[in-house]
Amino acid sequence: MSFGKSRLPLKYQVVTDQFDSNVHKDSTLITGFVYNDTAAVSGAKISTLNGKVSTMTDETGRYSLTISSQDTALFMFKSGLSEIVLWNYSFQGSHHVELNFYSSYDLYQIEVDKPVIYMYSAEDLKVSVKVNFKGDLAFVYPSMKENYWQVNLSDNQIFIEQERYPYLFWEGVTGEIYFDKKDEDVYGTFVKKDEVVEYLETTLTELGLNSKEKTDFITFWAPKMINQESYFIQFLNQETIDDYFGQLEIKPSPDNLNRIYMLYEGFETIPEVFKSVPQQFEPLQRNGFTVIEWGGSQLNNYSKREL
Questions:
Q1: Sign of CA dihedral 300, 225, 192, 208
Q2: Which among 3, 20, 150, 236 is most buried, taking Cβ atoms within 10 Å?
Q3: 302 band by pLDDT with thresholds 50, 70 and 90
């Protein structure tokens, strides 16, 4: 059995991928099942990256859909279960793919997705970067040596052993985290799914991200926020980020260290007990040696947790 990338117990299996003369030359037929542990999952949504082609599993957990062979990703979504994504698959025309999804939900583990670290310095610097993460690191790129990156900065660009990188990348799994709140007020904003991109553009501009940083952020997160009618979005403050995820250890110390983390959760209807308070943002500082990091996590099952 060959499983795809999985940090939590979230897996998929490509059972077969075979030529089928009954399928159009520019299309791929995909069939399969969705399971939660050993039980079939009905009512799970299977969709392409842009959401234009989708279907739901029946009472046996089975689904079937035909997509363009140019597509490269599929989502499995079911409220109460963590989403599974099949990334960068080479679908072929006139092929039938049998693809099963396996999902188990762990209330006490949260993925910290794609924190990326940008570093800027007009002057040449040698910098060491260590992620003191309060959890288990699942993946880093480029690879670390002795648990840290040794970076050469030159003309606002990152080099490691003569190779240029746009940013440093890491992901991990940590214990359960929650939306930040005061008393019964939860800081953040409910955003309709078709307004997510506009909201992120506005908020990230207020935070002071440049065009590349905003594009990287939105193209990673926005496609994940299409399966529910609305999303509650919260950006954590610096103190909470350090408390939840741990600190970055950077030598020499940057003139400005800006960490931006987004928590979000999707809802079909807004919970009546949810008292949201809009957030105010101040632009980050970018003078001198500047480090900017962004990342985020999807929270699940708000109705089963106490904030």
A1: positive
A2: 236
A3: low
